Amino acid sequence: MTRRIAIVSAVGVTGETVPQATTRGPSWDGRFTVLILFLPPALLLFTLFVVLPIGEAAWYSGFNWNGFGRPTNWIGFDNYRFVLETRAFWLALRNNGLIIAVSLAVQLPLALTLALMLAERFRGAVALRMLFFMPYILAEIATGLIFSFVYDGDYGLVASIWRTFGAEAPHLLASTDTAMLAVLIVIVWKYFGFHMMLFIAALQSLDKSLIEAARIDGATRSQALRHVVIPLLYPTIRLSVFFAVVGSLQLFDLVMPLTRGGPADSSNTMVSFLYNNGISRMRVGYGSAIGVILFVICVTFAFTYKRWFMRDE
Amino acid sequence: MSSAETTRAPFDPAVLFKAAFLAVVAIFVLVPLLATLLGGFKSLGELRVNPFGWPTHWEWQNYADILFSGRYWQLLRNSLIISTLTVTLTLITASMAAFTFAHVKFYGSSMLLSYLTLGLLFPAATAVLPLFIKVRDLGLLDTYFGVALPQVAFSLAMSVLLLRRFFRDIPHELLEAALVDGCSYVKFFRYVTLPLSRPILATVGTITFVNSWNAYLLPLVMLNTDALYPWPLGIMVYQGEYSSEWHLILAFITLTILPTIILFLLAQKHIVAGLTAGAVKG
Fold first, then answer.
1. Which of A11, A20, A251, B241 has its CB surrounded by the most CB atoms within 10 Å?
2. What is the number of CB-based contacts under 8 A between chain A and chain B?
3. Residue B59 and residue B10: Cα distance in Å, rounded?
4. CATH number of A79-309
């Protein structure tokens, strides 16, 4: 106690230098306590359930192992070879590519257009924003089930539209030609609202004076949009692309109720491929190899994208 | 942006186009949801001939059967337990770590922070098999904690980043003054930082809750007993049992997404702020 009082009085006298003395002096104990008490729970959980499993995946991927006992049957890189020789793996990779392509070609322009419309104030704008955002917070499982009804060949909405035109209703999810297309439509339905919200948030924090300046200088609305607003949104567009890619690489829940990756692996994503071939059959080594490949893709993408496109942020 | 000449002239073709475009998108979003809600009120026979329209005969029995079955409530209870565990543990561990990173200078601080943010780079799915084996070896398979603890671990990275940014804005002079007055770091955290940080805690809590409430893969891998299933697993089992009795499945879907929609309407601000702001500045 006496020491603290001394310091308090010292602050009054010498001003600047003394607060340093307080942080170094008596409160070192305090800082030490915080370090000992506050950091370990988070670090421990993170290490145990996130970092170690990734390392172990690399280790297990060298074995032919069904998960029971200890892994003993070391087969080197064979699991990776098996994965790369599987046609379904390349189909899954292609599907992830398709999802990214549709996100860029359909979802992003749609989200941006809607954001430009709804960032303005008019009656119902907020309600529409909320409506468009709602699919994003619904569980992917529920969304998938809703759309497996929509697509159902006997009871579904699509079938009923078909029948009003007198045509035989297709079973969209049961055909290798249409299953992935059907999944892609659901993806746009579920995620465009999220990207729209990103753009609205960005539009609302834009410096309005830049747009006004352009208008005063004689730019038309569409010129101001093309040459001022869109360029100002580039950071958000890059971010939106980033989320589209990352989201595609982890897409799983949505696919399961719709198609389970089928028919004939035509609508698998990387994660549903991992689930169908590694997890559900407890092929730990093989599944871990898929996991490691997915990990490498994710990390490589994140680093190169950040380096190339998001250097300033 | 909204200039007077376009919003006030009612017959401007641009306005008309805009209204039509918004209407089409609204219909695209609404129709599947409304058809699901209404489908639960129809009989299977009516659903087949009239999947879009109002029910000609309101079949309350579908909803009533589910609401009076123990099954529905058990699924919601399990989901609530797992989500509450996940949110509580995430908020406690993440806020303590974030406080340390924000206010305590120590050697290796920035290194440890980047270590934690590695978690943002890849999804839980990549390591789910080793994770399963780890949880099994810890004896947590088929328990609520076996699902909640990995979920906490995977939500830590984002949570710590969001909380730390907020904590850092609390003036450092406040902490120094409190320390000088004999307050400890721990007490400052408990009585100053946390009460001042309610908005960000609510935001982080809401994101974590929504993610955990909707999660499918981790519970699918970690749980074997039906009695412990959260609702996304339960609804898949239900769909498997009643494979083409869509009127029942639609009623079940409606009832299970109802809590999410109610929460969304109540906590819009936190949900939108959390799910987008975290992304924008994270």
1. A251
2. 289
3. 43
4. 1.10.3720.10
